[in-house]
């Protein structure tokens, strides 16, 4: 499952992302509305964790846009605003749930699972399939046909990222930010991506799978069977 957290408090965002990544979610961070809009326009997300009070506006505005443009995306408001009026506003605007800060991270996890179940997604059996490749998004087990591939956490997240963005050119910088976080913005060299990609392609090939990674010289990589 792929989640975007829209939250301007860096320490809280880091704690949420670290927790959800340990639960095998793909979780990305946007500290403001502008960056969140850019990311939502480029990538598909299953769930948005959305603060109301952001540096460049109110999260309710983004909530309305999400419900208009990305109808299958679930939204959970995470806010320090505990008044009934705010809760009613958020839920009436289309939020699938509302949780007040501070909150235990396991409770947030339970809320995420609950809203996704209401969307008729059975997380225990959710499968991501691309031709002969199948990933169980709950157990994070990957198979080529009936053969289980032993992938590291970074490798399987890289594979999921490629499949979810098939036919899109992904720069090495975008891949680095997705897998390691925003601090990679400050890195001049992200050649370490190549080694993870090389290992992933080798393991898929050794298990009888096809190589769907296309190198787009000067731009990055694209996952495609064309």
Task: Characterise the protein shown here.
With 226 residues, this protein is α/β, with parallel strands linked by helices. The chain folds into two domains: 2-118, Rossmann fold (3-Layer(aba) Sandwich); 127-223, Winged helix-like DNA-binding domain superfamily/Winged helix DNA-binding domain (Arc Repressor Mutant, subunit A, Orthogonal Bundle), CATH 1.10.10. Helices cover 41% and strands 23% of the residues. It is built from eight helices and 14 strands. It has helices at 10-22, 33-42, 59-69, 84-92, 105-118, 153-164, 172-180, 192-206, and strands spanning 2-6, 26-30, 47-50, 53-54, 57-58, 74-79, 97-100, 127-130, 133-136, 141-144, 147-149, 169-170, 213-216, 220-223. Strands 2-1-3-6-7 form a five-stranded parallel beta sheet, sandwiched between helices. Helix 6 packs across helix 8. The longest helix is centred in the C-terminal third of the chain and has 15 residues, at 192-206. It is elongated. The two termini are 26 Å apart. The relative contact order is 0.11.
């Amino acid at each position: 499952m792929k989640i975007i957290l829209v939250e301007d408090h860096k320490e809280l965002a880091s704690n949420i992302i670290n927790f959800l990544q340990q639960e095998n979610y793909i979780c990305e961070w946007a500290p403001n509305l502008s960056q969140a809009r850019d990311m939502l326009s480029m990538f598909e997300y299953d769930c948005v964790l959305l603060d109301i009070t952001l540096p460049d506006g109110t999260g309710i505005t983004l909530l309305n846009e999400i419900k208009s443009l990305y109808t299958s995306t679930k939204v959970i408001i995470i806010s320090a605003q505990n008044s009934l009026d705010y809760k009613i506003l958020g839920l009436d605007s289309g939020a699938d749930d509302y949780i007040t800060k501070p909150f235990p991270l396991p409770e947030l996890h339970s809320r995420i699972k609950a809203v996704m179940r209401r969307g008729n997604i059975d997380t225990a059996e959710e499968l991501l399939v691309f031709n002969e490749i199948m990933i169980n998004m709950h157990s994070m087990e990957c198979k080529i046909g009936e053969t289980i591939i032993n992938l590291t956490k970074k490798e399987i997240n890289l594979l999921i990222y490629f499949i979810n963005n098939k036919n899109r050119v992904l720069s090495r910088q975008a891949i680095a930010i997705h897998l390691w976080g925003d601090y990679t913005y400050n890195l001049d060299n992200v050649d370490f991506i190549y080694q993870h990609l090389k290992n992933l392609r080798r393991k898929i090939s050794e298990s009888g799978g096809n190589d769907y990674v296309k190198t787009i010289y000067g731009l990055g990589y694209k996952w495609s069977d064309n």
